Amino acid sequence: MRHTISVLVENEFGVLSRVAGLFSGRGYNIDCLSVAETLDPSVSRITLVTTGDDTVLAQITKQLNKLVSIIRVSDFKDTEHVERELVLIKVTADERTRGEVMNIVSIFRGKVVDVSAHSYIVEITGNQEKIAAILQLLKPLGIVEIVRTGRVAMFRGARTLAGGGTDEKENVA
Amino acid sequence: MQTNGAGLIVRLLERQGITTIPGIPGGASLPLYDALHGSAIRHVLARHEQGAGFIAQGMARATGVPAVCLGTSGPGATNLLTAIADAKLDSIPLVAITGQVPRAMMGTDAFQEIDTYGLTIPITKHNYLVSSARELLHVIPEAFRIATSDRPGPVVIDVPKDVQLEAITVDAWPEPGRADPATDCTSADVLGAVALLEDARRPVLLIGAGVIAAGASDLVRRLAERGSIPVAATLLGLGAMPAHHPLFLGMVGMHAARATNLILEECDLLVGLGIRFDDRATGKAAEFCPHARILHVDVDASELGKIKTPTLGIQADVGAALRAFMAQINPRPRPAWSARVAELRAAHRLAMPGADDTCRPYGLVRAVAALAGDDVIVTSDVGQHQMWVAQAFPFTRPRQWLTSGGLGTMGFGLPAAIGAALACPDRRVVCFTGDGSLLMNIQELATAAEEKVRVTVILLDNAHLGLVRQQQELFYGGRFHASRFVAAPDFAAIARGFGVEAYDLATASRPAAVLAHALETPGPCLVRVPIAAEANVYPMVRPGGPNREMIDRDAPVSRATASDDTENGGDDARPTP
User: Fold this and answer.
1) Do A58 and B305 touch (CB under 8 A)?
2) Are B29 and B70 in contact (CB under 8 A)?
3) Which residue of chain A comes nearest to B309, CA vs CA?
C-alpha cells in the first residue's frame, strides 16, 4: 500500500537522518522525498512517499511522533487532500517531432522552458496519473532525461498540517 | 560567572545532582576532565568505555535516577555504543557525553574522529551535536528531561573540543532538567479498563519494566489482591511483585515454569502493564494468550498494537492508570479461577534439580539468596546463568534485579554491579555471570578493585557459551560448533591478579562456608563455580514456537529442527534468552 506522509520538523541538521532512519531500519524504501522550510523558517516540512504494509507504516508513524524534533506527522491515506509533483522532462525535439511535443505539452497544460536545436525541456505539474500519462505519451518521441521534485501534499478545506481543522494524529493511531 | 564550555557542562551536571561519573578520558575530552578536576563530582575511571557505560547503567537501574558516562571522540564513542543501545532497549535513563574533534576539523577524518551523532541516532531517545557553549545551557537540562520523561532512555551529547574550550559568561543558570509530569489516562479509558476487568473471569496481570520505571509496584500488588488476579512478570519485571507472594506466578515465556505459560494460555483477560510483548516473553505472538482479550497499558503509544492488537490500549503512566483503576474496582474473589491456577501450579511446578547442592546452578542461586538476604542487589550477564537466576532467585523488591533484557548484552553484569554498588554503597551487590560473559568485560575487575566496591562475582564456569551450546543440542542436531572454550582460563588467578579476592569452589572442601565468607567480604570478590557443560535451562520454548509447547528436562527431544525456526530464522547465534 502506498502512503504519502507529511512531517513538520524543527529546521535543524540531522532531522532528515532521524526520519529516514525509521524507514531504512525496517527495510522500507522511501520512494520520493521533498523537504523545504515552511512559513515559519524554524520549521521544515518533509513529504515522503513509501510503499508498505499498513501495520508497519502505523508503527513508523508512531515512532515519528516520538522523535523530539518532530512537530506533526500525518499519513494522507484515506484523507481528502491534493497531491502534486513537478517534473522537468528533456525530450528530443527535431523538425519531425517538435509539433507533436508541443501538442502534448499544451494538452497537459505544461510549459516548454528551454529550447535547443534538438531538444526541449518541458515543465509539467500534476498528480501521479497526469505525470504518468504525459511520460507515456512523450516516451515514443524520445525522452532523454527526467527530474522529479517528489510529491507534495496538502489537506483540502480548512484543515492544516500544523493543527488547524481536525487532529490528524487520530488518523494514525 | 566566567567559564568555558567544559566548565559549564560540569556546573550543569552538579546542579543536576550528579555526584559520580564513570568514564575514560582522551584527547577530545581533556577540557572536560580539566573542569572535573576542580569539581566535587567523583570520576570513576573505567577500563573500557563499554564498562563506563554499563557502570552508569548500573547506577541508573539501581536507583531510577539518570546517570552520566563520559567517553572521548572516535573509539571512546564507538566503545560506548553497546551500552547506549542496551539502555535504549531496556528504557534506562542514561546521559552519555562524548568529546568530539574541534568543529574546524570535523569531516576531515581527523585523528579519533567519528560521526558520533550519526552513529547514535538509532540507539538513543535523542542526541545532540553541540555547536556553541551557550547551547549547553539548554541542551544539558533538556537531555535529562528527555532521558527521564515518559518512557526513559539514553541521550547522547557530543561536544566538540573547541566548544568545550569556548569562553562564556553565564548570568543565569537554567533549572535542572526533570521528568515531565506523568501521562494520565482519560476517564473513558478508565471506564473501559474497569469494564474489562469486571467482565473477566480468568484475568492475569503481566508486568514489565514499565511498572518499575513508573514506581507502580505497590499498586500492582494491591490491584492483584483486590481482584484476586494472578501476576506474571517479564524478565525485566521481576522484583516488581515479591516472589513469595501467593498471587505471583514468576517469569513468563521461553524459560518460564510450565504452569505460568499454561495459565496465560487459559486466561480470558491479559492485563499487560508496562510490557512490550517481547518475543522471548510471548513465544509465537499470534498464539500468545489465544483466548484472552488484551488490556495494554504503556506510556509509549508505539507499543500499543505493535505486536498484539489490544482490545483496549491505554497510553498512560502505569502508576497513574492503576490509581485510576483502583478507585473504581471492588474487591472480588475469583474462586474458580484461583482454584484452577492453584491446580496448574501444583501440576507443573518449575523443577529445580540440585536445589540443595551449592555447586549446581539452582542450589548455588538459592544458597546465595539465602546468605545474601533481601537487601542484596543482583546483576547478571546473559546466558544460562541469567535464566537460572531469573527462575530461582526470590526477588522481593523493584530495582533489586538488574539484567540486560532487550539487547541481551554479554559483559553487562560486572560493570553494572560496580555501578549499583557505587550508587547504593550500603548494599551488597552480587553479579551472577558466566565464563563467556565475564570475559567480555573482565577488565572492569580493575575498576572494582580500585573503587573497593562491595561486589561479589559468582562465576558459573562451564567453559562454554552455554545457551548457544544448549540451542545447538536441542535445535541443531547436537552439531556443536564454536560454543566450547578449549583454553580454560584460571579465573581465580586472574581475579587475584587484578587485586580481587577469589575462591574456587572446585577445590573447596566446604563450598557453602566459602560462599558465606565471600558474601561478607568488604571489597570485591570472585567465586568460581564449575558447572557441567550439559546442564541446560529447562523448560524451554523453541525460538518462534508457541509458549504452550515447552521442552522439558526429562524429554529434551529435538522436536524442532533449525528449519522449523521460521519466525526467528535462526537468530540465536548468540545467547539471547
Assistant:
1) yes
2) yes
3) A55
Q: Which CATH number fits domain A82-148: 3.20.20.60, 3.10.580.10, 3.30.70.1150, 3.40.50.720?
A: 3.30.70.1150
**pLDDT at residue B125 tops 80:** yes
**Chain B CB within 8 Å of residue A173 CB:** yes
Partner residues linked to B270 by β-bridges:
B204, B294
CA distance B526 to B14: 34
Residue type, B139: V
Centroid of chain to Cα B539: 22
Distance from CA of A26 to the nearest CA of B (A): 12
Residues in chain B: 577
- The grid coordinates listed for B103 are 568543529
- Inter-chain touch A66–B306, beta carbons under 8 Å: no
All CATH 3.30.70.1150 domain ranges of chain A, comma separated, are 82-148
CA distance B36 to A126: 60
In CATH, the architecture of A2-80+156-172 is 2-Layer Sandwich (3.30)
Beta bridge partners of B528: B459, B504
Q: What is the pLDDT of residues B311-357, one digit of tens each?
A: 999 999 999 999 999 999 999 999 999 999 999 999 999 999 999 99
User: Per-residue pLDDT tens for B421-459?
Assistant: 999 999 999 999 999 999 999 999 999 999 999 999 999
